[in-house]
UniProtKB/TrEMBL annotation:
This is Methylthioribulose-1-phosphate dehydratase. Coiled coil: none annotated. It comes from Amycolatopsis keratiniphila. Binds 1 zinc ion per subunit. Pathway: Amino-acid biosynthesis; L-methionine biosynthesis via salvage pathway; L-methionine from S-methyl-5-thio-alpha-D-ribose 1-phosphate: step 2/6. GO terms for cellular component: cytoplasm. Its EC number is 4.2.1.109. Its cofactor is Zn(2+). It is an enzyme of class 4 (lyase). It catalyses: 5-(methylsulfanyl)-D-ribulose 1-phosphate = 5-methylsulfanyl-2,3-dioxopentyl phosphate + H2O.
């Protein structure tokens, strides 16, 4: 089995997992893995397919600009419109995989804290790669848009090597890691952290505490 076939199988399996969690509703969301770095080659899930039903063939290879490269077995397939941001994140962060889902908690959190969502003193932060205590973690929030170059610039402007995530306001969240499993573990922990942040804020509001 080729490297691309293995990547396609892994992407399909992870997509099905996220779809089962309700984080990739309809055909939303996209995942990617880096195949090569010189030049940058990224395998990205295809556009317009139910992410719970992908096969190992539902993958497209793009270059650093997010555009489909010619030397691949699926030149007729269309990559996600957000492939350019995946490639930018991979290039800047050095990550081996990027996952983008439409989980609700990150989007709600960005509504409350549009300048960045602060997290600290929570045990689950260890699963996100940060300390459980005395470590202020700020998840950056960038404005939504359809131009991946603009989104990429906004991501890069706020990039911190120790914070492997960015929320796109009223859209979704991107999380990255060394590979798909690593990125998934980080996302699972971060989704919990953001849900905790939102729900404890709402409880505070009910009690008259801001």
């Amino acid at each position: 089995m080729s490297v691309l076939e293995l990547a396609g199988r892994a992407l399909a399996e992870e997509s099905a997992r996220f779809a089962g969690l309700g984080w990739m509703r309809g055909t939303s969301g996209n995942l990617s893995v880096v195949l090569d770095r010189d030049p940058l080659r990224v395998a990205v899930t295809v556009s317009g397919r139910d992410k719970g039903e992908l096969t190992s063939d539902d993958v497209v290879v793009v270059g650093e600009d997010g555009l489909t490269v010619a030397d691949q077995p699926h030149p007729d397939k269309v990559p996600s419109a957000e492939a350019g941001l995946h490639a930018r994140i991979a290039a800047v962060s050095g990550a081996g995989a990027v996952v983008h889902v439409h989980a609700l908690a990150p989007v709600v959190a960005a509504e409350h804290w549009p300048d960045g969502v602060e997290l600290r003193d929570l045990e689950m932060l260890k699963g996100f790669g940060r300390a459980a205590h005395d470590d202020l973690v700020t998840i950056p929030v960038i404005a939504n848009g359809q131009d991946m170059r603009v989104l990429g610039d906004a991501f890069e402007a706020g990039f911190r090597a120790d914070t492997p995530a960015v929320i796109v306001a009223r859209h979704g969240i991107y999380v990255w890691g060394d590979d798909l499993r690593h990125a998934r573990h980080r996302l699972e922990c971060l989704e919990w952290l953001l849900r905790f942040r939102v729900e404890t804020r709402l409880v505070g509001e009910e009690r008259g505490v801001r």
